[in-house]
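ESCALATION

Customer reports they have been waiting on this structure for their group meeting. Please prioritize. Original submission:
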Amino acid sequence: MAVSVSSPVLSLCYNQSGELSSRLGYRLPKKVGFSSSRRSVSYIGFGTEKVGRFRVRVPICRAVPPLLFKDLDADDFRHPLDKQNTLLLRAIPGLNEFGKALLGSMTEQIMLLENIGTSVLVSKNQLSDLHGLLVEAAEILNIEAPDLYVRQSPVPNAYTLAISGKKPFIVVHTSLIELLTRAELQAVLAHELGHLKCDHGVWLTFANILTLGAYTVPAFGQMIARTLKEQLLRWLRSAELTCDRAALLVAQDPKVVVSVLMKLAGGCPSIADQLNVDAFLEQARSYDKASSSPLGWYIRNAQTSQLSHPLPVLRAREIDEWSRSLEYRSLLKRANRISTVQKV
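Update from on-call: job pushed to the front of the queue and completed.
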């Protein structure tokens, strides 16, 4: 999924699930724009994909323009566990004030120089396709688009940093771009935007620095750090569930989000097109069944208690269930569609 386009250029169309529409039997439009047929593609953006040994320019097609959530509030999609664990973090005396004291202009300057020096800043004039995905996702979630950097790394990952009063930024690794379709990549960006929408980035930075500081204090400080780490990891896992919901609000297709989780669990570019979302969801249900006994419950807790993210199968099950909930459907009813076609 390199950004450069090699000759010859072949136009192929992806649906919201990230599958080539030609494989699904849809007829590709001869011209970009609206058609009198209701079945024709009405909203088109462009990216590039690798097909065989060629780099091809690929339109990202939606059957209809995406929905915009103009009055969206973070609590409209925040996971109940996120709400609960955020309240527990806020109840820790002095956490907020201590974090603000630790995060000053020097920290912000270090992080800024680190990204400018080792990554590529995305803009209208640099990786414009990726920039377009970010801007559209931010518009859908009713949030200002942060800076976006692409960093060379063999580890598929994306992360966000937000410092109070400073412009936040997202970093995406090149290996993640190679692994995902454009729709899936936009879902990842939406996930990171969800952290910003819910102020997760600020809380995460505060708590991480506090934990590192506490470990430098003998005895009592280490005990505080261990307790805080447990609370932090519990909060982080619930925060990830919230941000998966933000990804769904942008993708507007649960299979796109589940596909991302599946690829992060066991995907690579060479086998990505062979992965099956429905089979992965069935795997998630089998995990729930296997861990339903008292022994299974104990093993499951031991397996996840030290993780910063929930297990991929559990995240897939959560987002699949939320996509069928009354809460999600009511959000869709409140939304408005983008009224114009993205210009090529």
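Sent to customer with the following note: Strands lie at 43-51, 54-62, 67-68, 120-121, 147-151, 158-161, 169-173, 336-337.
Escalation resolved.
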